[in-house]
Design goal:
single chain, about 575 residues, alpha/beta, 6-stranded mixed beta sheet, 5-stranded mixed beta sheet, about 20% strand, DUF927, DUF927 domain-containing protein
Amino acid sequence: INPDGRGMDRKMLNPDTMMYEWMPTLRRVFDGISISKSDVSQFYDIHFDAKLRNAEDLQITIPAGFLGNDNKLKEAMASFGAPLRGKELNPFKDFMGTWLEKLQDERNINSVTEQLGWFRVGENKTIEGFSDGSTTYLSDGTQKIGVRCAKEFQAVGRMYIAAGKKEPWIRVAAFLASQDHAAFTATLASAFAAPLLTFTGVSGGILSIVSAESGVGKSSALKCAQAVWGSPTHGMSAVDDTRLSVARKLGFLNNLPAYWDELRGTKVMEEFCTLAFQVSQGKEKTRLDSTATMRDVNTWETMVIAASNESIFEYMGGYAVGSDAGVARTFEITVDAPQTDRSRAEIAIMFETLNQNYGHAGAVYAQYLAVNYKAVKEEVSQTFIKLADYGEMKEAERFWFAIVAALVTGAKLAGAAGLVNINLKTLVAYLLQNIKWLRARSKATMLGTSPSELIAAYMLHHQDKALVVEKLLRGPGVRNYTPVIISMPSHSMMYQLAKKEGIVRVSKGDFTMWLKRSRDIPWSQVSKKFGAELGAVVLKTSIGAGTKWETPRQMCLDLKVDMGIK
């Protein structure tokens, strides 16, 4: 550091004197240097302060990999407000590289993580432990204490740092279990089930908890489950959380459950339905970072548990076609108010203690999973196989049975870890019976996704933009065609309906875009059904030919519709 604090000098050969002298090299002073290594990616980050006389000190973190990429390094430093000018680049790289090697030699490296849950290493992703956030429990019984969350996840990571004591949670969980109300014990078991889903071969699933009335206790059960791992107030997703933020959070939680309370309103429910497909895929969408480089995509294998007064299952039925779609990814249970001798006030006070006491049960369970992961994996696999055999699982029902297997095994392991004793007999019977109910409901739910109902929904959505005529212009060589107009669109035109023929003509591009946007249904997935059921014909023609609304020639769909629908 320069004696007057105006930067950093470097001992260099002065070509004029042929002697080594301290010469000005960097305008800023860089100190407070520390190194962190990701437990997940095994990559290093460099953390340091940048000081410029009479200016505010800067706290900077850069990937160590940027020392090997001049453009990224210069852009990152400039973004932090400490640009490297002129000949500063190489001295800065040498300085930071020397510190990196020094701290590696001294083993003075902080552990950070970008994901909670199973700690996997190597190309084969071998399990070596389990992380609950601040601690990584290893399979040999040792622990990595003081693990920090990566900078981009620090805000959500703080919600998963244990607070208070374990005993208040133990009391609340024991109360829930003592009620022996299977819907509530299943909700509680979800906290222990989510990390087990990875052993079923399913990347993600939805557990929907529904009650027609408010105040039956589903939010309280959700609160107890969330408190296993983190804050029951700040840790839950809220109705105004975006799909992108929730997907990002799932990538961080990885194998820990994600809870979403009080889903309500058409817009929120539709957003959640779209998210549900992404949950089952187990990864967020590919995106570019600020340097237009493909950013790492976060992945997960977990459960999203959502509570609502409306059936998510019913909503999902309107967002997919085929048995292996929305409804098959959603395991929904209905909650009724349990009978208890305790007053509502007493119960409310008991559950309120969770706001200051959480995260300790998760630490106990994480350590249990880490040390016993081989036996745990076998237990989940055998339970899945037995339940699938007993329940005569169909291929499209694998999400349901995977969720049930995880719930049952999670409840069992929670008892083995000394946390809560759930009546497994009651729980298993309830969950298997629920599968029978879901089978019946799924048939009724997916009636709303037939081709005839989809085109009817499209026509209803654009009913003020319909041009209704007696007959369509069909075939080549027709000139001076003047259709008999029955009703006109109020402004612009979206489709043309020939009433006598029972044929609707739509723009193929617009209709398929509407299918994808409003129902998350790709045309390729349903085109054969539209052909078989509605005689769909693709042709290049105009919509509204012979009228003032006539469009340029484009790819259109002619579909036969039941005029009774209209």
